[in-house]
Specification:
Layout: E1 2-4, H1 10-17, E2 35-41, H2 60-68, E3 70-72, E4 75-76, H3 82-91, H4 95-98, H5 116-122, E5 126-131, E6 144-148, E7 158-161, E8 164-169, H6 173-187, E9 194-199, H7 236-239, H8 277-297, H9 301-336, E10 343-349, H10 368-371, E11 375-378, E12 388-390, E13 394-395, H11 399-407, H12 421-424, E14 434-439, E15 450-456, E16 459-465, E17 470-475, H13 493-509, H14 523-526
Parallel strand pairs: 1-8, 2-9, 2-10, 3-12, 4-13, 5-6, 5-9
Antiparallel strand pairs: 3-11, 6-7, 7-8, 10-11, 14-15, 15-16, 16-17
């Protein structure tokens, strides 16, 4: 079934959904149990959120959540890839426990297992997920869902709803996610608390900006990261990846230069064919000019690599701007409807992302830029003073137990995370001493080796395995950019021994006691090429 719509801006959409005479006092009295709004973007790096202070861009609306709540400086994931991160969030368990290991192999999310939305639903919450799902199976535990097919499209996206698939011709995915979320909130039973998971597709590759954002950042020049020309000395796994801006970022799909001979992914067939004539005209006006300049310059070598970096940064940040706009519109909606003070509002991403560090885009590695994810939480009844920063080691296994704890629902024993309540209330500064990580998705699509590891407050120890057997140790205090592998330095013999002992303890705690044998079926063996990268 196809639903045809004319493209209009998010602001216009929300204005039409918020009549002037709508006021909080006309709503039914909310229960004291908190509402939950979990906002997650796809591949949003902490480096590109204003509140984290890197200065690459401004995100005034996302920052509002940090300014009224708590910003986490050390928030991490358990497996830095989209689908697995989402499964971890839902279940509060690491990948080897919830069964969803990667984005394109044998992994299909088992919807029969316990998730926090199911438990909230049983406790009287209204639940919905709108936007990106990326877990293959049909969502369970939700009163309503409206989800992208696979990775989804930026333009005219196909969405799966309980009554079938619909195509929203003329709409931009980020705006649509906001519109559908507001519609669901308006239609709910407001005598009950809600849990809404609002998941933006953006800013996932290939970073297609909204029509009104096409010109943004075109006059900006971004500084090259200090590690852009990393030579990966002493780090074999880092040297053998295929996520280099220079070598692996494509001219057609990624930088939007059309008609490149031998291009493996056809931008014209994919995103551009989904645009309305007006949207396509906006694209051609900006990117046609860029392509003319690119063709005339005939860039090679470092000049081409640095040109690709600038194109990547500009398009990525354009897409982020739309996310920020829509986060602001949702906050406005909560405020106007008397929901802001009693709603737990979370902003995070499914993992971190490389903004040219080590010469890369994408994620996957246990290195800081992809292992670390942005996190900020607003909830006035618990966070008494807004604008607080916290440096505790927290992880995405902690979301499920936190939501259940704050909603007054018993946390199942199998959940492996910890409730963040003590941290949010200011009663405790840390809930763990070290983090565990395990990544499985090799060899496709970016050839990042399978690996697991431990990170404490100063050191990180990683073991790369499967078709490789190497260890890496980093002193994060003295080497925050992780350039110097200390595994063979005799000065760190005792540190390494202690970390290996702690690593085994964590593997026992999280029941990953045979980490190199947990996931043995390769995609090549089952004939699956993968989807939605």
């Amino acid at each position: 079934m196809t639903e045809s719509k004319i493209f209009i801006s998010s602001a216009s959409l929300l204005a039409s959904l918020l009549p002037v005479d709508m006021a909080a006092q006309n709503k039914k009295t909310e229960t004291k149990r908190p509402n939950i709004l979990f906002i997650m973007s796809d591949d949003h790096s902490y480096q590109t959120i204003g509140a984290y202070g890197h200065g690459l861009n401004q995100t005034p609306n996302i920052d509002r959540i940090a300014q009224s709540g708590m910003l986490f400086r050390n928030s991490y994931v358990g497996n830095s890839i989209s689908g697995p991160c989402r499964a971890i969030v839902l279940t509060g368990m690491h990948s080897h426990m919830n069964g969803f290991y990667d984005n394109g192999g044998k992994s299909v999310f088992d919807g029969s297992q316990t998730t926090f939305p199911k438990l909230l639903q049983s406790a009287g919450y209204q639940t919905a997920i709108i936007g990106k799902w990326h877990l293959v199976s049909t969502p369970t535990g939700f009163d309503h869902y409206c989800i992208h097919t696979g990775q989804g499209s930026y333009y005219g996206p196909d969405m799966i709803e309980p009554d079938g698939k619909k195509t929203y011709k003329g709409e931009y995915a980020t705006d649509l996610t906001l519109r559908k979320s507001v519609e669901w909130l308006d239609g709910r039973d407001d005598s009950k608390p809600f849990c809404l998971m609002m998941h933006f597709k953006a800013p996932h590759r290939n970073w297609m900006p909204a029509p009104q954002k096409m010109d943004m950042y075109e006059d900006a020049t971004f500084p090259l990261p200090a590690t852009f020309y990393d030579d990966y000395r002493g780090r074999r796994a880092a040297a053998e990846q295929k996520m280099s801006i220079d070598k692996d970022m494509t001219l057609e799909w990624d930088t939007k230069m059309l008609g490149i001979p031998g291009a493996s992914e056809n931008l014209e067939k994919a995103e551009l064919s989904r645009m309305t004539p007006e949207q396509r005209a906006a694209f051609d006006r900006v990117y046609g000019r860029i392509q003319q300049d690119f063709t005339a310059r005939n860039l090679q070598g470092k000049e081409l690599a640095e040109w690709k970096y600038q194109r990547y940064m500009r398009d990525y940040l354009k897409v982020i701007s739309s996310v920020d706009d829509n986060v602001g519109l949702m906050i406005d909606y909560l405020e106007k409807n008397g929901l802001w003070e009693n709603t737990i509002v979370v902003y995070t991403a499914d993992q971190g992302f490389y903004m040219g560090e080590h010469g890369w885009f994408d994620k996957r590695f246990m290195y800081e830029e992809s292992f670390r994810a942005p996190l900020m939480i607003h909830y006035p009844p618990l966070i008494k003073k807004g604008g607080v920063e916290n440096r505790s080691l927290v992880q995405n296994i902690d979301f499920a137990p936190t939501f259940l704890d704050l909603a007054g629902v018993e946390v199942p024993e199998q959940m492996q995370g910890e409730s963040l309540r003590p941290i949010l209330s200011g009663k405790k500064q840390k809930i763990r001493n070290a983090l565990y990580y395990h990544y499985y998705e090799f060899p496709l699509p970016h050839a990042v080796k399978r690996h697991f590891g431990i990170r404490d407050e100063r050191y990180k120890l990683i073991h790369f395995y499967y078709n490789i057997d190497t260890w890496e140790l980093f002193d994060l205090k003295n080497d925050p950019q992780e350039m110097n592998n200390l595994i063979d330095d005799p000065k760190y013999k005792n540190v390494i021994a202690g970390l290996k002992t702690k690593l085994k303890e964590l593997q026992v705690k999280y029941k990953d006691t045979e980490p190199m044998n947990t996931y043995r079926l390769d995609r090549e063996q089952v004939g699956i090429k993968g989807f939605g990268y």
